[in-house]
Specification:
The chain is of the alpha/beta class and 391 residues long. The protein has a single domain (24-388), classed as TIM Barrel (Alpha-Beta Barrel), CATH 3.20.20.210. It is built from 12 helices and 10 strands. The protein has a 6-stranded parallel sheet with strand order 5-6-7-8-9-10. Strands 1-4 form a two-stranded antiparallel sheet. Strands 2-3 form a two-stranded antiparallel sheet. Helix 9 (264-267) links the parallel strand 7 (240-244) and strand 8. Helix 11 crosses helix 12. The radius of gyration is 19 Å and the shape is globular. The two termini are 25 Å apart.
């Protein structure tokens, strides 16, 4: 675990969620690999080039902590179990056919999970596998995002049992694998690890097109994630975060219309040390700031919870100014204790490897915009700290 104090460079800490838009060249390489026209080694070469560029450009923003942009992953949700979104390189006991949608987005498109066919369930790729390659490229601390067991729980059929592999056995496996994912990331040198929990807000929606959303799964999701967190000490959990957002893919979202208060009181019952909370794209921010301030806990099984509010909207190509970032943080400080306040992006900039970015015009332009936004997030956090007298 890298020794990293998030307040080293700014009085208000600031941290990315994780992913960055993948350049057109890399997206084409993924498609070529799926088509069998390039080898896995050739795909990996394109991934390395994009990861290196992500780190170099990330460091140039002045950010105190960066990510490698998840350029080696096809999806924030399925990186442990497949090489690509199309299912090339799928792990054992999974099928690319017959899986359920985990999200249907506002523009009508959906993203689907593989179908679990048996057990045991094991990761074939760990977040640390990518991080180990990125650490030598970086001169600044790196954070690592990992997928939550609550998302992977959706691999199991909603109503049916798999013969010889009970839901209880499967969930024990995903909790074990998630714990291992986090521990290996810290062992590889991650300064921070955040758990992607995009399914949290969606779990309260009840969309008839997507049956799992009407199954009242949020309490079980919270319990599964806490089963992982309870395996870490309070000191370790100060470096383990939870990320929530209304989804993000092709500049569209899946749960922005769901009231945030359906989620927040339950979400803060997870004993994580910090939370990365989408807010820049929220229409009515003050009630959310207030709910965050009221529901975060000073003592979550030994840790005081930090709240990083979203001040950057990755789905909108308009670049937020540093002054806008400053003003958002100052406003939030009316509801959230200053010592518990941080700044982040609403979501990863591109959670999936194939992402056309229609609002931006092209993935390459979206990539340039992302680094401009990050630069202003960092500068705005510094300005807010100065205005609030936080050092």
């Amino acid at each position: 675990m890298t020794d990293y104090d998030p307040r080293t460079l700014t009085g208000i800490p600031t941290e990315p969620v994780g992913s960055l838009p993948r350049p057109t060249k890399l997206q084409e390489a993924y498609a070529a690999y799926d088509a069998g026209s390039i080898s896995h080694e050739q795909l990996q070469g394109s991934q390395e080039d994009s990861a290196k560029d992500s780190i170099e450009r990330g460091e140039a923003t002045g950010a105190p902590i960066i990510s490698d942009g998840e350029q080696r992953w096809s999806s924030f949700a399925t990186y442990p179990i497949t090489h690509t979104l199309a299912g090339t390189g799928l792990a054992p006991n999974l099928s690319g056919e017959g899986g359920q949608f985990f999200a249907i987005f506002a523009d009508g498109h959906g993203r689907q999970l593989p179908r679990l066919t048996g057990g045991p369930f094991r990761y074939q790729n760990f977040a640390a596998d990518s991080l180990k390659k990125s650490i030598p490229m970086a001169n600044k601390p790196l954070k690592q995002a990992v997928i939550a067991p609550s998302m992977l729980a959706l691999l199991y059929p909603l109503k049916d049992e798999i013969p010889g592999y009970s839901r209880e056995d499967f969930e024990a496996d995903i909790v074990n694998e998630c714990e291992k994912d986090i521990r290996e990331a810290f062992a590889a040198g991650a300064a921070r690890v955040s758990i992607d929990f995009t399914e949290g807000r969606l779990a309260t929606r009840n969309d008839p097109r997507n049956p799992w959303t009407g199954a009242n799964l949020l309490p079980h999701f919270i319990e599964l994630n806490n089963r992982v967190l309870e395996r870490f000490t309070a000191e370790e959990r100060t470096r383990i975060g939870i990320h929530t957002c209304p989804g993000g893919d092709r500049d569209s979202v899946h749960a922005a219309d769901v009231p945030y208060n359906n989620l927040l009181p339950s979400m803060f019952q997870m004993n994580a040390g910090y939370f990365l909370i989408q807010l820049a794209s929220e229409r009515d921010k003050d009630p959310v700031y207030q709910s965050v301030g009221e529901n975060r806990r000073d003592d979550a099984n030994g840790v005081s919870q930090m709240t990083y509010i979203g001040v950057i909207n990755p789905g909108n190509p308009r670049v937020e100014s540093a002054e806008e970032v400053r003003d958002s943080l100052v406003r939030a400080s009316n509801f959230i204790p200053r010592e518990a306040l941080g700044a982040t992006d609403d979501c990863g900039f591109s959670p999936f490897s194939i992402d056309e970015k229609p609002n931006h015009g092209s993935p390459d332009y979206a990539r340039d915009v992302a680094f401009q936004k990050i630069t202003n997030r960092v500068q705005g956090a510094t300005m807010a700290a100065e205005k609030l007298g936080v050092s």
